[in-house]
Amino acid sequence: MKTPASHALRMALIMVLLSAALFPIYWMVVTSLTSSANLFADRPQMLPDPAQAFNYAETFAKTGVLLWLRNSAIVAVGTMVLSILLAILPAYALSRFRFHGKGVLGFVLFATQMLPEAMLVVPLYAIFAKLLLLDTLGGLILANAAFTVPVITWILKGAIDGVPLEIEEAARIDGCSRLDIVLGIVLPVVAPTLAAASVIAFFHGWNEYVFAQTLILSQELRTASVGLASFVGELSTPIHTVMAIGVMYTLPAVAFYLMVQRYVVAGMTAGSVKG
Amino acid sequence: MASITLNHVAKHFGNKVAIADVDLKVEDGEFLVLLGPSGCGKSTLLRMLAGLETVTSGEIHLGGRRVDRLPPSARDMAFVFQSYALYPHMTVRRNIAFPLIMRQFKWWFHIPFLGGLAKRKIERSPAVRDLVEKTAKTLSLTEMLDRYPRTLSGGQRQRVALGRAMVRQPEVFLMDEPLSNLDAKLRSAMRAEITRLHQRVGGTFVYVTHDQVEAMTMGTRIALMRDGVIQQFGTPREIYTSPANTYVARFIGTPPMNLIEGRIDNGAICIGKARLPLPPALADVAGDNVLLGIRPNALSLSDASASGGLAGTVSLVEHVGAESVVAVKLSDGATAHDEEGAVPGEIMATVQGYSDLQPGAAVSVGLDLSEVVLFSRSTGQRI
Are the C-beta atoms of residues B349 and B314 closer than 8 Å to each other? Predict the structure, then answer.
């Protein structure tokens, strides 16, 4: 039974966990709005100083952050779209069809996740150099998608497994082809999972560093993750500039998540068939 | 509308025979019920008619047209699923209109936004809108047209599934246990609704059920199946009064037909030491060991001292409203009831009204011999 004490305890626990999760972000915002003089003060500044907002203007003016963010957005959206497009049909096939080698194929898809990016970067570099994909955002999107497609395939397969077969049979009787069923019936029914898979692919593309650092050579094609890291110098690091870029790097991702999260709702299939 | 003909239709799943060799002709406008226990192949047969399962051998004709190699959508048959199978992301209106939208579907309808607009345009066209609204009105769904399936009750969802079938105006309606997910009261109401639908639209209906009450009340003819083989194909009355074999005799009727072991001897049937004269219709029956089949309502119970009946002891009395079901253990007679839970030598009788008999009471069981059917004890087939 809920007592006021247990309620208070629960709320306190939630507050502690929330603080642990949100404090680094808060600290990033505060640091980006702290003057250089106060950055290394004995008593750290705990509240943002609005007067230091010019730090953002200076960052915009002196760094290529807008270009990096644009490149990151292209790579993230490209990775998301390509991954979803490439994963839908294999996921459907793995879920619905019986064919020779299905188990092996499923395992191989899974096994790709066991290989770390750093291990693949050298062979990928050689292949991309031959295919003239080095130093192109398209090549980077392709490399990222190679990592996200297997994961998304498995996630979508799991969701399609949960779509009652009778719905597809009803659609066949109503005149749908197999492609009509996938695009018109199955995908809308698994929309919440599709949204979740999009989030995974988007953030992989947005955050990715190893490939972006290796496969992109020119300054103007740098993504934000590489651009941000370029400020960390051997002798000095402009902390408040790095934090300001960090804030700008985080905001679009948060906005994307807030936009998509309303689609990540449960219970889409409720009522279609008797549960 | 069209008749359905099945010629030597069989279905094998690997080594397992689901449908053995079915020959069947369903006349135009008929309401055929495929009846049988779980796993007898009735749903498989229905799915083969719909094109959802391939046919291992044999042919299916709809009217004069061979359809067993056509895809489901080209067969002009509508299918109502046990689990409703509504599209969860579409409103009731779109669910019902969906088959009509698919008739005008173009590949570019898959393009997001543009396809949505095109589908909406079809849905709002006068021809489609009027048909959908007329169908909804028939099924009392008008108020729910803009709701989603998840907000509807089981009965409402099943009505939407019926609407989706009706709106196509198909030649044949196929229904796979459409009422088995509903509660008893709603099932009874929907049973009447489907019967009225059949009378109104006049199409050929094929209806799968394991519920003999549904079969007896709705079907113009019943095909009773077991292990992929049709045991009997006839009107509900034929199946009830003249079962083709002991399986049919025991499957239909509540309580089922009693099967008492007997012996034919000189124009009479002997059960234990009792000797009962055969009715004229059965006077020339040949054979020695037989099973005497008699419905519980053709038995009468009287005082143990009465002559001309079978002696027995009451073992159970169940009062079911207008009548009482009395189980009687025969003192000198054996039965051939092989179902789980059947007590050897026990027969069931129904008595009008509330019976005052108590378990343990000695009774004499009278048989209305004009209602008797005889089966071979070795093959189980009707003699």
Answer: no
Residues of A in Cβ contact (< 8 Å) with B81: 166, 169-170, 273
Q: Domains along chain A?
A: 4-58 (no CATH), 64-261 (1.10.3720.10)
> What is the rounded distance in angstroms from the CA atom of residue A248 to the CA atom of residue A252?
7
Q: How far apart are CA B275 and CA B266, in angstroms?
A: 10
Instruction: Give residue A275's pLDDT band: very low, low, confident or very high (50, 70, 90).
Output: very low
Indicate the pTM of the whole model: 0.82
State both tokens at B23. 């020959």
Best CA proximity match to B36, nearest among B219, B266, B260: B219
The topology under which CATH files domain B256-376 is OB fold (Dihydrolipoamide Acetyltransferase, E2P) (2.40.50)
With an 8 Å Cβ cutoff, are B73 and A174 in contact?
yes
Residues of B in contact with A84 (CB under 8 A): none
Query: Do residues B152 and B160 make contact, with C-beta atoms less than 8 angstroms apart?
Result: yes
Q: How far apart (Å, rounded) are the C-alpha atoms in residues B192 and B208?
A: 16
Residue B1: which pLDDT band, with cuts at 50, 70 and 90?
low
The SS3 of residue A25 is helix
Distances (CA, A) of B274 to B265, B306, B326: 12, 13, 21
